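Handout, section B. The chain below has 185 residues.
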Amino acid sequence: MEQVLDRTYRVFRWFLDNIVGHGAAIIMLCSVLLAMFEIIRRYIFGVVYDWGQDAVTYFTVGSICLYFAVTQARRSHLAVSALMDYLRGRGFLKLVLFVRLLITAGSLTLYSSIVYFGWSTIERNMALERTTQSMVLQLWPFQLALMAGFILMAVTLLFQLYQDFQAVRGKKVFAWAPAEEGLEI
C-alpha cells in the first residue's frame, strides 16, 4: 500500500511541477508580454485593445490560481510559524505534529467545500454568459482555473494529510517530499 501511495504521489507531483507549474508560468509570461504590448500601443500609438486590461488581469489571476497547488505541494506557502517554533523549541514535537495534522485536515475541508459550492457559480456564469468589464472575455474560464487550483490543492492535501498522520504515529512516508518547508516571516 505504501509503495502504491508513494508512486501515485510521485506521479501527481510530477504532473503538478512539470505540467501545471510550467503551464501557469507560460500563462503568466504571456500575460506580462500582453501588458507590455498594451503599454507600447497606449503610449506610442495612442490606441489599446478594449479587452487588453481585462485579459492581463484575468490571465494573471488564473495563472496564480493554478500555481497555488504547486506551492502547496512543495509546502513552500507563506507560514507564520512563531507558535510552532516556540512549541518545538520547548520539546512539544508531538503537539506540533498534531497541530499540523489538524491544520491540514481543516485546509482540506475548506478547499473541498469551495470546490463543492463553487461549481454552481461556474455553471451559472456559463449559462448567463457573464463577461468581464470589456464584455469580450467570458468569466467562467477564469473561475474554472480557480476551481482547478482548489481541486489540485485538495488532492495534494489528501497526500499531505496521510503524511502528517503517519508523522504523528512516528512513521515517515514520502521521504522525498518535504514535510515542512514554509517561508517564514
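Note. The chain has a mean pLDDT of 90. Compare this with the example in section A.
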